[in-house]
Amino acid sequence: MAEHDAESNGELNGHEEATHDLQSLLASVGRDFLVRNTGDQVKISNLDGKIVGLYFSASWCGPCKRFTPKLVETYNELSSENGNFEIVFVSADEDEKSFTDYFSKMPWFAIPFSDSDIRDRLNDLFDVGGIPYLVIFDVNGKVLTSVGVQVVRDYGSNAYPFTDERIQKLKEEEEAAKQNQTLRSLLVSSSRDFVISKDGNKVPVSELQGKIVGIFFSISSFNSCSEFAKSLKEMYLKLKENGENFEVVLVSLDDEESSYEQGFADMPWLAIPFKDKICDKLVRYFELDSIPTLVVIGSDGKTLNSNVAELIEEHGIEAYPFSPEKLEEIAEKEKARIEAQTLESLLASGEQDYVIGKGGIRVPVSELVGKNILLYFSAQWCPPCRMFLPKLIEAYHKIKEKDDAFEIIFVSSDRDESSFHDFFSEMPWLALPFGDERKKFLARTFKIYGIPSLVAIGPTGKTVTTEARELVMTHGAAAYPFTKERIQEIEAEIEEMAKGWPEKLKHKLHEQHELVKSHRRSYICDACNEEGSGWSFYCDDCDFDLHPKCAFNDDEVANGVGDSHSDCPGEEQRENGKEGYICDGEVCYKA
Which of 78, 171, 434, 514 could form a Cys-Cys staple with 504, CB 3.0–4.6 A? Predict the structure, then answer.
């Protein structure tokens, strides 16, 4: 069973309109009761006349453990208000101890762990493809919603009685609130009209009205959030010194209060209390899709900018007050900077006007001016980086044989100097010194969000492409000097060569079907497990791909039918004619 938010599965495959008799749904031969976490038995008939949720969950599921406290809160609120809502836990735990420990945190009923047949039948009946999963029935047993987890996340107890009409009304109220947005409507709840300082003082939201306010969404364990917080703090303190009417309010998305407190302790601004209901509301309201995010609310209470985090990291206090006029001014400056870009403007900063070679030998940046340069963003801890390095070394040597006016500079994201030196020792090129501040500038300039990344800089110092990694993976050394013109030449060669390939072929690795010559945007070759793009020999029935090289035998390759991976002619043929990162297999991205 998948450990993910099952609401993405949407409909119940026909069960959405079904009506169920809960007695026959939940009972089994010899059992007409549910259990509490105390061990007490409760007749299933106690559910009669109530709105009931079936909660599919498990202790081993991270998303379940994060959602369960929210569901407990909703349940307790509804129980105190009307007592007409009940939940039945359907466990996916693999042993009784795990079930018992997890169930001990739940105030509702459960299918006994011993009744695995009923639990399995309910999973099959409601097509539960992932957990947490919450199906809610009305008093007559009709399914009200199969996306109960999302409904509870979004609206909590306000969603009761969970009808389509109620959810639609809440959505309309939210839309109306956006039309009449004020700082108070954003930050105040029915039980709270204040935010807090890190020493616990309550600051009335009314004191923030008339100010420019940044709403800072963060998770303290994310390195990208803590790094951004440093830039934000620097700007915040300068603005306060200058007497600007600016404030920041933290909206922490931490799961643990200790993490919230630790992160907030070093922040000079204000915050929404930990796990306040309004946090989830604000996430939905601003359609949050990344963190860190800093939403700017103008002095009139209206949203001025949906996220200025990147602006602050790149421009600091110069981005304030984030108005359209200021952003236009910044865009003009950025355009001028790009037009004036040189290798020295990228790599020389005060006394840091050199890169290093083996043994720490300093190579002045001035000696690299006029060359084609690749900036190689990478790290030893990153598996895709280690996989890509041999391919890059091979391309480097082939390019250097033909053009000595070429160099690669390693820009490290290693976490310690020992790892840096170990990884750099495998490379035949140059590097920025470990911990060099220029790395942050280069990563911001070229918007490096994942590694490995390769940025190609031409002889004039202008950026040729930020996608040179893909070009090396696809075309090897033949992609040099990585210009649009060169890539167009390669693609023309590929198309010409492909005219001589068969439209279909049989291959010993996939004898059950013919493979069809196909244009594929991207794929992984099932023979060599390397990525490819463009031409493939493909079986749609089996989702099976072969690079042209892998599809043909050696004699055919020798005769020019195909040679290299990724659908292209062989390189000789062409040349003659971590913390803070998540790795997904091909690239490690910033968390």
Answer: 514
